[in-house]
Specification:
Layout: E1 5-6, H1 19-32, H2 34-44, H3 48-59, E2 70-71, E3 76-77, H4 78-88, E4 92-94, E5 97-99, H5 103-116, H6 129-137, H7 141-160, E6 165-166, E7 169-170, H8 172-181, H9 195-203, H10 209-223, H11 228-233
Parallel strand pairs: 1-7
Antiparallel strand pairs: 2-3, 4-5, 6-7
Helix pairs in contact: 1-3, 2-5, 2-7, 4-6, 4-7, 5-7, 6-7, 7-8, 8-10, 9-10
Length: 240
Amino acid sequence: MALRTQRFPSINQPNPFSPKDMSIFLTRIKSQWLPYFKQAAYVTGLPLQLLVAKSAVESSGNQKTSNNTYVGLMQIGKVTIADCLNYLQGKMYADGRKWIAPAPVIAKAVPIIKKFFPAFSATGGTISKDAAFALAKSNTAAGAEFNVLMGAVYLQFLCQNPKFIDGDVLRLDKVMAAYNTGPNYTFYKAPVADTSGLVKIIKGSGLSSGKKLETSRHILKFCGIGGAFDLLFNNKFSLT
């Protein structure tokens, strides 16, 4: 899947992490986990930089974190993992419609999942939410591989959802907010010209005060000066 134009016109705001800290997070992923991200990029067609940047913002490149609800390198939750598995089987419902992953994604993802859950296939075979979540949470190589793959599949779904596309522009800032906060809020429909406008709308939304702050900071960790997007997409940090 080729990404559409990526729009970040307000990268003039600082990100809440220092560039030094962000570089540490990216180095951790590069040295410990990069093969899993390369595999997930191959499966989903998303840029490697996007997946690595997302993990740096989500978990700082740490497989084990203090969060027991959203877990692992991609900080993904039980319900979202179940949605991703349903998406690969054409059984996912969102925004009032049924979704199925692109055929190339299904063909590449299913054999990887079958390594951990042999009964799973593109046409059937259920995996319990608890078992899938337990694997994604486990502090093992298999857990890291599955966790990164599920996070990447979810990002692939978000990146093709029309609500995050303005004309021919994929709004990755909205995708980042949706991954962090959930994709079903009405504020995504608001016409905003730039990332600072999106942050302003989120701060004025009906989210709790804590969630407003978390989501706003999350977006800027990705989009801001010295943030993950800036370092990776502007060639300030190399993954090679």
